[in-house]
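Milestone 3.1: sequence recovery, worked example.
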């Protein structure tokens, strides 16, 4: 029997011995997604892309988003969250930047390169997001 050189589908599902979905490769509305699930069906990892971005999302045991790595031009941004945005790490043409957020999701600290002088800068924000220093 000949093995087909191409298999075409919009969705592939990998199941375990108990016929539970454990992984899926699918074409979503805005791009392809590869997802992995635990034995209970909870999503644990998703890798995908759209026309504008690509990324990796890691979920905790309850299915809540724990960490996200997203690629956007002109840089890469890492979000580490537990129900809220806590930090962002960026890489762009001028170098890198680090942004820290408070519990309310307000930007409080920015460490990066000044786009005009191209020198390092540290900016501190108050709880309203206004520049303090």
């Amino acid at each position: 029997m000949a093995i087909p050189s191409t298999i075409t589908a919009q969705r592939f599902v990998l199941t375990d011995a108990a016929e539970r979905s454990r992984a899926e490769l699918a074409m979503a509305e805005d791009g392809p997604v590869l997802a992995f699930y635990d034995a209970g069906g909870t999503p644990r990892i998703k890798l995908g892309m759209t026309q504008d971005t690509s990324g990796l999302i890691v979920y905790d045991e309850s299915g809540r988003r724990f960490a996200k790595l997203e690629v956007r031009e002109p840089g890469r941004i890492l979000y580490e969250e537990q129900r809220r945005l806590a930090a962002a790490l960026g890489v762009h043409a001028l170098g890198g930047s680090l942004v820290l957020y408070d519990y309310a999701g307000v930007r409080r600290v920015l460490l990066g390169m000044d786009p005009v002088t191209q020198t390092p800068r540290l900016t501190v924000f108050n709880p309203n997001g206004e520049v303090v220093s």
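The radius of gyration is 20 Å. Residues 73-133 form one domain.
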